[in-house]
Design brief:
Layout: E1 22-26, H1 31-43, E2 50-53, E3 61-65
Parallel strand pairs: 1-2
Antiparallel strand pairs: 1-3
């Protein structure tokens, strides 16, 4: 993602298991960025990547990754 113009703020492991292969949570005014990140994820093997609005989170965009899917 860094090569696509995005920067990495922090990376952490979730305490809960991730139910979906990839989900991008976004705060208000970041929907278009979330859509762009989902498109990049889909190009890189996360075929079911999706995005959702989430009000309370530590950053404008939070990405939770499970594992890439097979085609």
């Amino acid at each position: 993602m860094i090569g696509a113009g995005y920067t990495q703020v922090t990376a952490e492991n979730s305490e809960a298991s991730v139910a979906e292969p990839a989900i991008v949570y976004y705060q208000r005014n970041y929907r278009e960025v979330a859509k762009q990140v989902v498109a990049l994820l889909k190009k890189n093997g996360y075929l079911s990547a999706s995005y959702r609005y989430r009000f309370r989170q530590g950053a404008p965009i939070v990405i939770e990754l499970g594992g890439p899917q097979s085609e």
